[in-house]
Task: structure prediction
Amino acid sequence: MVLSLMSRVRAQSATDLLQKIRARLDQVNDYQAAGIMRTNVSFLKEPEASVTVYFKKPDKLKIRNDKGISFVPKGAVTISLNNLLKGNYTVLDAGTDTTQGQKVRLIKLLPQDENADMVLSTFWVDEKRLLILRARTTTRDNGTYEVELYYGKYIAYALPDKVLFTFNVKNYKLPKGITFDYDDGSPKKKQPAGDGRGSVELTYSSYIINKGVPDSVFQ
Amino acid sequence: MWKLLQIELFKIFKRPRTYIPFGAIAAIILIIQLGLKFDGQSYLEMGMSSVADTFNIPYPLVMNGYLVAFVILNTLLIQIPLLVALVAGDMVAGEANMGTLRLLVTRPVSRTQLMLVKYGASVIYTILLLIWMALLALFLSMWIFGTNDLIIARDTVIEHIRKTDVMWRYIAAFGYAMVALSTVAALAFLLSVFAENSIGPIVATISIVVVLTILSEMRIPLYDNTVKPWLFTSHMLAWKGFFYSQSNGQGDTIAGSIENLPSILRSLSILLAYIAAFVTAAIWAFQKKDILS
Result:
């Protein structure tokens, strides 16, 4: 009975903690952030790109490259924590863990909506600073996404300076008969098998917060 | 020499059939551009379906003038050798057929000079054909579709080249294609020396190019390391190497880089060696030729 009571107390605490973080995130209604995006996917030879990330409450997010083309991974909306924390969830306290060299609280969210695409979310929370340092989301159709957030200049708004977004990648192969690839005669380098994962790193240089972002940006 | 070259060029451009390749190229390019303008997304989806499962692909931006030009070159640079053969295969055999060859060699120029000038005229024709192709495939596509980064789907990787890093690659690719097509012109020119009628060398050149291209594209281990490295058709596709860039340790492509420049230069030198061999053989055969017509 004592154990059950302790568990209830701790579960409440996790909910409270999440409420506080939510309240903190809620102070940002919109932002426009300039940054550099680097994509690391085994089959993609992609140059780093200057991008602008737009966010508007409740869940609009757009990554735009006005100087060229950028392949934005599906599920990149989860780089905005607001999008992960929307809706109704059952909160589970999963104890503690260590990430980015510090001890953190581990909190799991189970959506109450049975038809939600998100099946389970796990958060690594810095309890003292009320920050989410890492989040892992398992979806019904699109595999598992993971976001790692590094804070700096914009910590007051709980906005990261750097985000590392990891996602599932399917294999890529086209028949040579279609591509007519040039065979340069060099010994064939075997394509690294990889772990079926790719990542995108977003390093923000500046944010414009709560100055309004037109809806047209997201179309 | 310059006067002789002018005469040869005059003879080439006086014939109506000289303009057939220009018309054929324009027709093919316009058909491709029209198709891609109205249904380019379906074409892209076909090649990028597995990538689209992971990424949001901005198809309208990907389908830009640079990509359209690449698609056209991919299609046409396999067929253009046949068009080049139409003129180069006629250079000597056509004269023999018309009975003007004997008259030509009575002029106070050496047979070597005559042959060099005739081959030079074939190369100029090839260059003009490529310029025409560049105007339509690259510049017209840029005008119709606009410009943006170039995305190229290879068999195991996707190349992404920034738009500021593309134009020099096209210039290099067209320069390389000029050498590649001059090799076919040299082959047709050589065969032209042995015939009294231009049909023979034209058909023979086309047949050789088709057979060797099939052999170059087939994946048979027996030929891969023995015959294929020495076929000129294996090296004609090396223009694509200018669109393959190096990437750094983090996987970012390096602007202005080429993945395997030594390989392109090797291919280039093999093609130049073929040109030298074909033209030398043509001159030698022409000097020994007993001209009866």
